[in-house]
Amino acid sequence: MINYRKILELYFEDVSQRTISSSTGHSRNTVSNVVRKAKKLGLEGLDGTMTNPWLESFLFPEKQAIEKGYYPVDWEKVHKELQKKNITLALLHKEYADEAREGGKIPYAYRTFTENYGKYAKKYKLTMPIRRKPGEIMEVDWAGSTLEIKDRSTGEVLPAYVFVATLPYSQLSYVEAFLDMKSANWLTAHIHAFEYFGGIPEALVPDNLKTGVVKALRSESILNEAYRELADYYRTVVVPSRVRKPKDKPSVEGSVGHVSRQIIASLRDYQCFHLEELNQQIFRKLENLNTLDFQKRPGSRKKVFEEEEKSYLQALPQTRYKLTEWKIAKVQLNYHIQVERMYYSVPYDYVRESVDVRLTTDLIEVYFKETRIASHKRLKGEIGQYSTNTDHMPDNHRLYLEHNPENNKKWAESVGPSMTRFVSYILRNNIEKKALNILSTLRNLSTKHAKDDLEQATQTLLDISTNPTVSVLKSILERKKHQQNNKKKDRDNLQTHKEDYGFVRGAKYFGRDSK
């Protein structure tokens, strides 16, 4: 018989396989097979119970089957297959038996098959128990089973999704039903759970669902921004469980199963027409579940929580967190983004850029590379509404938008009473579109002439004409400007003429006026 224990003892003492072979008298292939199998099964040490027969059944269980004439079972394969959805030991035994008979071998009976698998799972797949500290974490998840709500008016049956939160130390749970599993309800469920427990744990352990985790990475997962904000507000951290690792959050996994049996299953035939009514039934059964005495330990979930765990939770903030939601939008050519079929402006410099949008109940904030570039009051009601800030528009667009009768009247008042009368005359005697075109030409004059000059010229225009026009006003301004230029030239010429004579002595200087 192979001395498995001696081979492994020497191997764990870092003795070479060549030396082990010489010491035990077994071939190097035998030593290599034993060492390789021990490595594969994660065996890292020996204790007093690990005898040679035990090690043989542990390392090479197929040998026993062959020696007894039974078709060997690949227990590692069975264990992996059993982790898949809807796979049972009965199905795997049937497939194994069919394969054995096709090869002319004898299969194990189903009872022996399950017993041997139980031994394999006990030996090979041990689970390390983790004792959680009070107030350390809160595990959260959606239950796989749903309840139903019936629409009284249409008779339509709507699914109700069940949220479960559990504190692993006390096993106290919180359960609530929602009509969907979107981000808003996910965050609301957390807030209600915090308030039910009366405090905040150090960490939250969710599954890798999209409402909580944008992208699951081995090193550090990328959280949904709204979920991260909620965690920051309540001074806790989010530590997502690893993908396909339900044992990372065993308490909530167990609670989901317990809740499914004690609450969801018991309400499967309960007919209700409102979500509030359904949650009242859930809360009543939840209270019974949390106050029910444990079977294998003294007290109940609620009693253990109140006596041992509640004091370790962080205090709730004075005000409840306001729900937020984050979306990504692209700035359109009209420098607006579309959010829930409403349109909000951003500075035109960001056209065709992707921006982050933060939505609260009453406000929308737009961020570009973590810098806020716009904010708007959230539009409600009829779809397709626009919220436009004129500061976000290019200059030519803003001028076009502001070019209306009201703004033109305000401009005229800033120039003077004569200009106000002239603008009112133009608006009164022309259709709006034509009047605005005329006023556009009129306002261009303000870029070339001072307001005082415009007011004086307009007063002259109104005094001399019963049908004043902008072209006549231009003529008056040009004539006045021409006159001003001529006067300036005359003054310049006179000054130049005086300078040409130099210093002139009078007649008195030469003695002519001495008489």
Automatic annotation (TrEMBL):
<feature type="compositionally biased region" description="Basic and acidic residues">
    <location>
        <begin position="487"/>
        <end position="500"/>
    </location>
</feature>
<feature type="domain" description="Integrase catalytic">
    <location>
        <begin position="130"/>
        <end position="310"/>
    </location>
</feature>
<dbReference type="GO" id="GO:0003676">
    <property type="term" value="F:nucleic acid binding"/>
</dbReference>
<dbReference type="InterPro" id="IPR036397">
    <property type="entry name" value="RNaseH_sf"/>
</dbReference>
<dbReference type="Pfam" id="PF22483">
    <property type="entry name" value="Mu-transpos_C_2"/>
</dbReference>
<protein>
    <submittedName>
        <fullName>Integrase</fullName>
    </submittedName>
</protein>
<dbReference type="InterPro" id="IPR001584">
    <property type="entry name" value="Integrase_cat-core"/>
</dbReference>
<dbReference type="InterPro" id="IPR054353">
    <property type="entry name" value="IstA-like_C"/>
</dbReference>
<comment type="similarity">
    <text>Belongs to the transposase IS21/IS408/IS1162 family.</text>
</comment>
<dbReference type="GO" id="GO:0015074">
    <property type="term" value="P:DNA integration"/>
</dbReference>
<feature type="region of interest" description="Disordered">
    <location>
        <begin position="479"/>
        <end position="500"/>
    </location>
</feature>
<dbReference type="InterPro" id="IPR012337">
    <property type="entry name" value="RNaseH-like_sf"/>
</dbReference>
